[in-house]
Amino acid sequence: MKTAVVLSVAVLANSVGSVCLGKGMKNFPVLEASGAAWLLQAAVQVVLNSWVIVGVFLLIVFLACYMAALSWADLSFVLPATAPGYILTAILSRIFLHEEISPLRWAGTALIVAGTCLVARTHAARSVAAPAVAVLAEGLADSTADSE
Amino acid sequence: MLDFTLLAVVILAGAAGDVSVTRGMKDVGEVSSLRPAVLLGIIGRVARHGAIWVGVVCKAIAFASLLALLARADLSWVVPATAVSFIVETVAARYLLREHISHLRWAGAACVGLGVALISL
After folding, report:
1. For chain B, which residues score pLDDT lower than 50?
2. In B, which residues are within 8 Å of A62 by CB distance?
3. Residue B60's pLDDT is what?
4. H or E segment and range at residue A47
5. Is the pLDDT of residue A27 over 60?
6. What is the least distance, in Å, from the CA of A59 to any CA of chain B?
7. pLDDT of residue A124
C-alpha cells in the first residue's frame, strides 16, 4: 500500500512537472538571438518563470518519492511500475499543451514502456544497493543543480 | 537536427553527471545516519569533492539543454526520447565496464530504440 501511494505520487509529480516545464518553455520567446548578454537575460527569465518553478518543485517531489521507494523496493519493480508515466505524459501533453499525437507516436511510446519493463527485468538478479546509491547521488546532483 | 543535438547533450551530460556524482559519493562514503551533525559533515565533504562538482555541472548542463529542447519540441516527443539513455547505458555497460548483458536486456534496449524511432517519424 505504502509503495503504491509513493509510486503514484512519483509518477504524477513527474508527468505534471514535465508538463509545467513544457508550458513554461513554450511561453518562452523563440530562441533566435545569441550572445552572452542575451543568454544571461534568457536564463533570468527562465528561472523567474512560475511554470518552470512549479515544474522544478514537482521534479524534486518525484525524485524524493522515487528514492524513498528504492530504499525498500527493488529497482526491477520500481522501474516498470513508473514506466506508464510515459503514457500519462503523452495524455497530459495532448490535453494541456494541445499537442497532436499521431498513432505512430502512441505506438512508439507504448514500445518504449515495453522496452523499459524488459530492461528492468534484467536488474532483478542484481543487488539493489548499487542502483540505489546511483539514484541517491543523482538526487543530490539534481537538487543542487536545480537550486542554482 | 538541432533537436537531436540538444537531445544528445541531455543524454550524454546527464549520464556523465550520474557517473561523476556516483564516483564522488562512493568516495565520500555511505550516508549512514540522518543526525544533523553527521549530515553536516557529509555535506562539507561533498562540497569539497571535485568529482561531485564536475557531476553537478554536467547535470546543470543537461537540465539547461532539456529546457532549451522543451522550448523547441513537443513534450510528447522529448520525454519518451530521453529513454535513449537505456540504450546508451546498456552499450556503455557492455563496452566500457565489460559487463555481461543478457539477451533480454538487449531486447529491451532494441525495443526502446525502435520506439524512439517511431515517435521521431
Report:
1. none
2. none
3. 92
4. helix A36-48
5. yes
6. 12
7. 59
Does position A2 have pLDDT exceeding 80, yes or no? yes
DSSP conformational letter for B44? H
Give the per-residue pLDDT at A139. Answer: 53
b/e map of B1-25 (b: 16 or more CB within 10 Å)? eebeebbebbbbbbbbbbbbbbbbb
Residue A132 has pLDDT above 70, yes or no: no
**Share of residues in chain B with pLDDT > 90 (%):** 20
Q: Annotate A92-104 with b (16+ C-beta within 10 A) or e (fewer).
A: bbbeebebebeee
ipTM confidence score? 0.76
pLDDT category at A147 given cuts 50, 70, 90 is very low
Residue appearing with cell numbers 550524454: B12
Q: What is the pLDDT of residue A29?
A: 64
Q: How far apart are CA B86 and CA B83, in angstroms?
A: 6
**Dihedral angle of Cα A105, A108, A109, A112, to the nearest 10 degrees:** -160
Cβ atoms of residues A111 and B118 within 8 Å: yes
Burial class (CB in 10 A: 0-12, 13-18, 19+), A3: middle
Q: What angle do CA A96, B82, B103 make, to 5 degrees?
A: 130
Q: Compare CB distances from A122 to B102, B118, B121 and report the shortest one's residue.
A: B102
Q: Which residues, including other chains, have CB under 8 Å from residue A84's CB and lie 6 or more apart?
A: A11, A113
Cell 512508439 locates to A108
Q: Radius of gyration (Cα) for chain B, nearest Å? A: 17
Cβ count within 10 A of residue B114: 15
A60, A140, A142, best to mutate vs chain B, most B CBs in 10 Å: A140
